[in-house]
Design brief:
Blueprint (H helix, E strand, L loop, with lengths): L26 H7 L5 H15 L3 H9 L2 H8 L5 H14 L3 H9 L3 H6 L7 H14 L3 H9 L3 H6 L6 H15 L3 H8 L3 H7 L5 H14 L3 H9 L2 H10 L7 H11 L3 H9 L2 H11 L3 H14 L3 H9 L2 H8 L5 H14 L3 H18 L5 H15 L3 H9 L3 H7 L5 H14 L3 H8 L3 H9 L4 H14 L3 H9 L3 H6 L6 H14 L3 H9 L2 H4 L2 H16 L3 H7 L5 H26 L5 H13 L6 H15 L14 H12 L14 H15 L4 E4 L5 E7 L15 E5 L8 E3 L3 H7 L2
Helix pairs in contact: 1-2, 2-5, 4-5, 5-8, 8-11, 11-14, 13-14, 14-17, 16-17, 16-19, 17-20, 19-22, 20-23, 22-23, 22-24, 23-24, 23-25, 24-25, 24-26, 25-28, 27-28, 28-31, 30-31, 30-32, 31-34, 34-37, 37-38, 41-43
Length: about 750
């Protein structure tokens, strides 16, 4: 073999620097390295900063002060994948800091982050880009940016990622986004239900929990509930409830089911599959207060609908509610009492609840919790209304004294309903005498002075019910109750005036009280309208076989006979008023109250009036059928839906919350009602041919360079139909088009 010749190594080029290992113990030096043109230096600097920032919030603040965020923002779009990945990792960690999030919003980083969610990107980039978005999405402005920059679609796609951290971060971001109602329709169109149901099978509890919370938010929308049922989502939820090892998920699963129970179709479907029976059995066996409370609230929402009440009655929901009254938790007691009030609209349920539930409700009147007391007395008022058997059951349960004591309660609702319940009992002579012996008139003097119209109305009617007794009238005079009663004749509330007139008429049946009423000015201060109402009351009384003539003739009769006669009059008037109410007074609009609560929670915290107006417009449109294409407006058949609601209520006066498919004037009215309640100034304008709209005045931002300049406000119309939330300048062609057919 020949001799090996050693291969000569070529010397390095003279213009190339030898490799240099850079080490630093100061964050400032590493931040300076982020300006390097060399990819390897950038990657190592980002890696070092990631480790530094991971140690605590103090280090994140340090890096923020050194200007690291601005450099990292530029690097997340770097052409080198390693540099890009490491930079995004640092931002993902740092974004948990409030001041960092604020700077990232100013840099408008969301679009760059969303672009990193492409399928071909590295899974680590997906993880930290979604982490950064999730941190930022707690702010409303970032939610809007993500929504407007089409970030929902890639986030929903990443729910199928093989990496659990990517799933968790994407899901958390989606959950934060759907807390604002304008995202509900978008996620529904992007078919989010199947991946969410798949995530319920995850081995990670945090992912399962987030999936359920997201389902709870989006299932507030009726169309989403239909899709959930079509994808067998109800079965998945019931299966979670039946699995003991998922006990930490039961509260959230029940909340989703509670939303689904609002639809009669869905409730019937659950009943047919045996799911409703399982659900009620589960609630009965549970010892978790949150589960019991949420179940009762779900029953309350479902009971708004008459068909739902029938289904719940078939499953003997009354037993479940009565059992919940005995739970040693105030929140559960309140929710159960409210559910009982709602189920009272069904006559069969009313009888069943009265037989067993009244003693427990009476016990709750002695609670130290004012909310419990109010819920219980409201249920008692509903149970005893037009139900002699329930009134007897309440009297036998010794309800009279605690009801009289409740007239001094702190909450107006408790006082009003205590007066109503006592009036219900007064239709039976023995109970009326018993109540009078406990100082009812003296106790009513306080509620007559209330500033709450509901309290005033119920208290005045109670005076009319008990004022047929001479001792009761004397007691009212001595307690100073006649003065406040006369003042109620000035009320702007028609029901208050009517009941005050009735009370004055009854109390004026003896000379002493009549003289006192005249002294107080009742004969002079009553305007024409009150006289007409009083005349109408007397006319209606005469039609019921006794009337004013009977009262006057009764002056010469014995006191006992007169008491009986006037008691009969009161009973008949109460029946007529109840009958009248069933035709023209709308039922309580609990759905509207929920809308107002939701708006107070999600819209009121927004920092600008413009943002509040836009958000409220989108909220209203979402509740009434969503946006409508202009050229398909004629296909939006709201009339049939409203007619069905009128038929259900046996009334042409429809609570606005019941309208799920509304046009211009329905939406404008709902916008005005909620806006007034949460403090947004707007006007409601009625046009022709079912057109109505809302107008707002907004101040534009000052021009750049002119600090402190206050521009005059401009008037806008709020689009609630075609592009909900779009503000149309008043006087423009678009405004004219919105106003007219």
């Amino acid at each position: 073999m020949g001799k090996k010749v050693k291969k000569e190594v070529e010397p390095p080029p003279k213009d190339v620097f030898d490799p240099l290992l850079v080490e630093s113990k100061t964050a400032a030096t590493v931040v300076l390295m982020l300006s390097s043109p060399e990819e390897e230096v950038l990657a190592k600097a980002c890696d070092a900063l990631y480790k530094f920032a991971s140690k605590g919030d103090e280090n994140k603040v340090t890096l923020l002060g050194l200007g690291a965020v601005e450099h990292l923002y530029k690097l997340i779009s770097h052409e080198d994948p390693i540099v890009r990945r490491n930079a995004i990792m640092v931002l993902g960690i740092m974004a948990s800091n409030h001041d960092v999030k604020k700077l990232l919003r100013e840099l408008d980083v969301t679009n760059s982050l969303i672009s990193q969610l492409a399928p071909e990107e590295d899974v680590v980039i997906h993880e930290f880009a979604t982490l950064c978005l999730a941190h930022m999405a707690v702010e409303y402005t970032t939610k809007i940016q993500i929504f407007e920059q089409s970030g929902l679609e890639p986030l929903i796609r990443l729910l199928g990622s093989p990496d659990p951290d990517v799933k968790k971060n994407s899901l958390e971001c989606i959950y934060l986004l759907v807390q604002d109602f304008q995202s509900h329709a978008a996620v529904r169109e992007l078919n989010v239900i199947p991946p969410l149901l798949e995530l319920l099978k995850s081995e990670y509890p945090v992912i399962q929990l987030l999936a359920l919370k997201t389902l709870e938010e989006i299932s507030k929308d009726g169309e989403t509930r239909i899709i959930l049922g079509e994808n067998k989502g109800l079965d998945c939820l019931l299966q979670i409830l039946e699995t003991n090892e998922f006990s930490d998920l039961h509260v959230e699963a029940l909340a989703v089911l509670g939303n689904c129970l609002e639809d009669a179709h869905t409730l019937q479907l659950i009943q047919q599959t045996g799911g409703l029976k399982k659900l009620l059995s589960f609630v009965g066996d549970s010892t978790v207060p949150d589960i019991q409370k949420n179940a009762a609230k779900a029953i309350t929402r479902a009971a708004y609908d008459s068909e739902n009440r029938k289904i719940l009655k078939e499953e003997e929901v009354e037993k479940c509610l009565i059992n919940l009254l005995e739970i040693n938790n105030d929140g559960v007691k309140v929710a159960a009492s409210e559910a009982i009030s709602a189920m009272c609209e069904n006559s069969a349920s009313k009888r069943a609840l009265g037989l067993q539930g009244i003693p427990q409700l009476v016990q709750l009147l002695s609670s130290d919790n004012e909310e419990v007391k109010e819920a219980a007395v409201t249920a008692l008022a509903n149970l005893t209304a037009a139900s002699p058997s329930n009134a007897r059951a309440a009297a036998e349960a010794e309800v009279i004294e605690p009801l009289v004591n409740t007239l001094n309660a702190q909450r107006d609702g408790a006082v009003a309903n205590a007066a109503a319940a006592l009036t219900n009992l007064a239709t039976q002579e023995p109970f009326r005498v018993n109540i009078q012996s406990r100082g009812i008139m003296r106790a009513l003097a306080g509620p007559l002075r209330s500033t709450n119209s509901q309290v005033q109305s119920k208290a005045a009617f109670a005076v009319a019910a008990f004022g047929c007794d001479a001792d009761a009238r004397t007691e009212l005079r001595n307690a100073g109750g006649l003065g406040p009663l006369v003042e109620l004749l000035h009320s702007t509330n028609k029901e208050v005036r009517r009941n005050a007139c009735l009370a004055v008429m009854v109390c004026a049946s003896d000379e002493l009280t009549a003289v006192e009423l005249c002294r107080l000015g009742s004969s002079m201060v009553s305007p024409v309208e009150e006289k007409q109402e009083l005349s109408g009351q007397r006319s209606s009384l005469s039609k019921s076989s006794t009337g004013e003539k009977g009262l006057r003739k009764g002056k010469g009769k014995k006191e006992d006979e007169k008491m009986k006669e006037v008691a009969q009059i009161i009973s008949k008037v109460q029946d007529e008023i109840n009958l009248e109410n069933s035709h023209w007074l709308p039922p309580p609009d609990f759905i509207l109250l929920d809308y107002i609560n939701d708006a107070s929670r999600t819209i009121l915290p927004l920092t600008t009036t413009r943002g509040q107006v836009v958000a409220l417009a989108q909220f209203v449109a979402d509740k009434m059928g969503g946006p409508i294409e202009r050229d398909k407006l004629h296909d939006f058949s709201w009339e049939l839906h409203v007619s069905e609601v009128e038929f259900e209520l046996k009334s042409n006066v429809v609570p606005i919350g019941k309208v799920k498919k509304g046009t211009f004037y329905h939406r404008a009215l709902l916008f005005k009602v909620i806006a007034d309640r949460i403090g947004i100034r707007c006007s409601l304008v009625r046009g022709e041919y079912n057109r109505a709209w809302n107008e707002v005045e907004l101040v534009e931002d000052s021009p750049q360079g002119i600090a402190g300049l206050l521009l005059p406000p401009k008037k806008y119309m709020v689009d609630l139909m075609f592009e909900p939330g779009f503000l149309i300048k008043q006087g423009s062609a678009e405004a004219d088009q919105y106003k007219h057919i």
